[in-house]
Structure formats: structure tokens, C-alpha cells
User: What shape does this take?
Amino acid sequence: MARSVYVTGIDRGDGRQVVELGVMELLTRQVDRVGVFRPLVHDGPDRLYELLRARYRLSQSPASVY
Assistant: This one.
């Protein structure tokens, strides 16, 4: 099994976040631990990361995601 999965998109509003949620849902049912990496940083809170962190109980600190 692959040790990592990278989801990327072409533009805002391309449905990537729905895919990310679906992939996380599948992975959390099959593996013990999952993590998130967000290579681009925007000003303000990262709402997707906060959703993933709350939904999947990620132990990563927000600073380690970027």
C-alpha cells in the first residue's frame, strides 16, 4: 500500500476539498494514522485543515501542516 497520497487541483472551486474529505474518510477506515500537509499558506485560518483536524482527530499541530 502507498505510504502517501497527494491531492492537487487546478483552480479554486474545482471540487478538491470534497475529494480530500472522501479520501480521508476512506483512509481512516483502513489505516491507524493519517496526516495532512498543506504546501501553500494563505492569510487567515485554514478552514479545511480545521475541519479535517476536528473530524479525524488529527494530532498534528497547525504549524506542522505547512
About this structure: The radius of gyration is 12 Å. Residues 16-65 form one domain. The CA atoms of residues 8 and 14 lie 10 Å apart. The mean pLDDT is 82.
